[in-house]
Amino acid sequence: MFDRDRWQEIFHTLKKNKLRTFMTAFGVFWGIFMLIIMLGSGAGLENGVSSGMGNFATNSVFVWTQRTTMPYKGFPRGRSFFFRNDDIEALRNNIPEIKYLAPKIQGWSSGDGTNNTMRKDKTGAFSIMGEYPDWNKIDPMNIVEGRFLNELDIEQKRKVAVIGTRVRDVLFEPDENPVGEYIKIQGIYFQVVGVFVPLNTNISFGGEKEQSIYIPLTTLQRTYNYGDIVGWFSITSRDDVPASVVEEKVLSFMAARHTVHPDDKEAFGHFNLEEEFNQMKGLFNGIAGLIWIVGIGTLIAGVIGISNIMLVIVKERTKEIGIQRALGASPLQIMSQIITESVFLTSIAGYFGLVAGVGFVELINYLLIKFGTDNEMFQRPEVDFQVAILSLLILILSGAVAGLIPARRAIRIKPIDALRDE
Questions:
Q1: I need a labelling partner for 143 at 20 to 30 A (CA). Which of 2, 26, 97, 286 fits?
Q2: What's 397's DSSP letter?
Q3: Three-state DSSP class for 377?
Q4: In this predicted model, which residue has the larger pLDDT, 137 or 16?
Q5: How far is CA 286 from CA 242, 290, 299, 353, in A?
Q6: What is the C-alpha to C-alpha distance for residues 81 and 268, in angstroms, rounded to an integer?
Q7: 299 and 398 Cβ atoms separated by less than 8 Å
Q8: Cα–Cα distance between 222 and 220 in angstroms, integer?
Q9: Beta bridge partners of 190
């Protein structure tokens, strides 16, 4: 039940010690405020890095060939070898843990500086990539016009191309629809069937994606005399299989197919994106843990201040407590009064700190969006609702703990001694 006299007495006591009360409450306010700010900043950092990956399949492995470093079955060390088209079906048929398989080959890079593509009187230097349709499942992109490559393009070795937005801007007029038009790549005409915008900007092969042109791998092989060579494989494991399992099986299988010593660790280059992604998640978990340690440490400092001021309040109310005890108040009732006051002071200060912290984080997010200053390293700072609730629970618990020592001191006051106190 609401006891008006009781709460008026609490306010009166706090008012008598208003400077000390303010400084103590400010310590709690600042502790929760900084905790929320740090949590929001940590979330913004994680969002920035994660958004840069778009919807890239993080359970992916990339494998390519290098020179051998060990002789094996009559072959000398230092031998060069290549993946071939028949390796594609061999992998699909022998490693059931593979979900998506995208063989790739790079014809030219935009970084070469040589104009390799033209349309009418416009030219540009772009990355020319031979692809399979599964690449759009491993690294999804937004097809803004037309379509991506399909299986018929691969089977029929069609001269079709999917271009990035930068390619479109360079080779076509602003109001021109490039789908259905032709571009010339190294002297060979290709029909544009799609235009894409990359969703992932952190992982790139052969240059900026906006400056890339994707053509069927089989078409690139035949048109530009690559034979049946495959540059490298992009592989995604099934959802229930770790990428490391697929990686190990692919390396062992391809070593046997290409007569490579089983212990030759340098014959294949490989990159496990899942391992890198897990390391990144571990880093952000560590940052979050550090934030909680620092934030709770700051809160503890505020809680100690609350406990100190409650000790002062108990000292000033010694006579009052003695009268209550003389009139029959139980130790539990005395303790509940002191702890209630402590929780009240802590909760009020913490609530305002929480509101101020969330408001500040939202203000930063608003300013980042309004002025377009968010980037790949920091985006959408935010505070999870569950974290806010957890913070409030910590505040209530902290207030109870802060009042425990003063409350225990209060119940040790003997009524006769309290009445003599001046």
A1: 97
A2: H
A3: coil
A4: 137
A5: 23, 6, 20, 24
A6: 10
A7: yes
A8: 6
A9: 183
Residue type, 68: T
Q: How far apart are CA 381 and CA 244, in angstroms?
A: 33
Quote the CA–CA distance of 365 and 382 in Å, as a whole number. 8
- Return the SS3 of 399: helix
What is the tens place of the pLDDT at every residue in 129-170? Answer: 999 999 999 998 999 999 999 999 999 999 999 999 999 999
Cα separation, 184 vs 189, whole angstroms = 4
**Hey, is 11 helix, strand or coil?**
helix
b/e 80-110 (16+ beta carbons within 10 angstroms → b): ebebeeebbeebeeebebbbbbbbbbbbbbb
Q: Which two tokens stand for residue 113?
A: 């500086």
Quick one: pLDDT band at residue 63, thresholds 50, 70, 90? Answer: very high
**CB-based contact 259:75 (threshold 8 Å):** yes
- 3-state SS, residue 109: coil
Measured CA to CA, the distance from residue 218 to residue 85 in angstroms comes to 9
- Residue 412 class from Cβ within 10 Å (0-12 exposed, 13-18 middle, 19+ buried)? exposed
Q: What are phi and psi of 258, to 5 degrees?
A: -105, 20
